[in-house]
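In the current project phase, work has continued on tokenised descriptions of protein folds. One protein thus recorded appears below exactly as we store it.

——
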Amino acid sequence: MLRKLRSEIAHFNSQPHNFRILVMTNIVYAFVLPVIDIFVAAYVMRSSNDPAKVVIYQLTIYTGIPLTFLLNGFLLKHFNIRKLYSAGMLLSGVSMMIMMSLKTLSLTGIGIAGITMGMSFGFYWANRDYLALAITHDGNRNYYYGLETFFYTIIAVVIPVGIGWFIETWGGKGGAHSAYLIITGLVFVITVLASIVCFRGTFSNPIQKKYIFLKFHPLWYKLLFLALLKGLAQGFLVTAPAMLIMLLLGKEGALGTAQSIGAIIAAVLMYIIGRVSGPAHRLRIFAGGLILFTIAALFNGILYNEIGVVLFMLFLLLAKPLMDLAYFPIQFSVIDILAQKENRGEFAYILNHEAGLYVGRFLGAATFLLLAHFFSMEIALRYAIIIIAVMQLGSIYVAKVIMRERVELMHQEEEKDLNKIQQAI
């Protein structure tokens, strides 16, 4: 066992310097992500007891993200990417401070906090995605995302339980708000540490400065449709666990415990899959994640009780990392070939990809709000996820088409290059 551990450490140390720095930066920031994803939504739910406000908060976040992607493209012409990446992490702490300073959770206050958090995510993900694309290649991307997912999931065991019971303990003494304030301060400290680690890298800005294009290769539009399907779940799934557990289990401590069920198994599994799998396995990994997500949605919709929530969280802990482990390498492999074929910078595709995600997120959140408005909150919480999960199963076919057409396009480009060489000779 010790020998195997040393072998894995040696394998990590054999990766390029920037590869290791980016992984370590994201690991430090991973301590913040469960707080942002789960407990901020729980705070809105606790303070307003209105699931619709939680979804509206999420919509404002998702509105801020694509706008900041666009702003980030302009700022990359003037600032080093490390500064913008760090700014994104720091803004998440600022957004939480804004939220905690609100005396009443009005829609205006929620909107301001949400837009700020959206800007945080925008700067973070725009630069993180570009750097991940720039420092990895198709052969080690499964390993990169498997490694990140391993640490993210391990951290997701500790943080939700610790913070959840901390909030619940202070809440019993009448100090829930002060508990959230302490957590907000810790979040800000961690974002500073992540920024310090980030500056140890030698990351370079994109070379090409034009990022906005209106026409793309047909293969790209298929990927945008896949992004839309992925966004459907994101539009509701980030806040769904918090709303379900706060309503059916009742407290943040239970929320943290439920988040931790099966997380150790999921972490080890994701690392092994990322370590041993290659490009040929991505479709099966992706399909596995989507099927598990559908099973999770069915458990929640059919049971809609404490057991249903726990089973939902258990399957979700496996489904989400499986989907991401396959999705990002598929996305990046398409960007690799199209950037070369269309002679464009990679960031142009990352920026445009966010538009596809945003449309999906908006439709996913709108599905919940419409069901809640025309039927009931219970109907929305039970069946919106099932509707989205069933629609997402179509992603398996879309991903299969994308991967096949990418290979065909790659062969065409190789033939063109070979013909040019022959003509030159």
The chain has a mean pLDDT of 84.
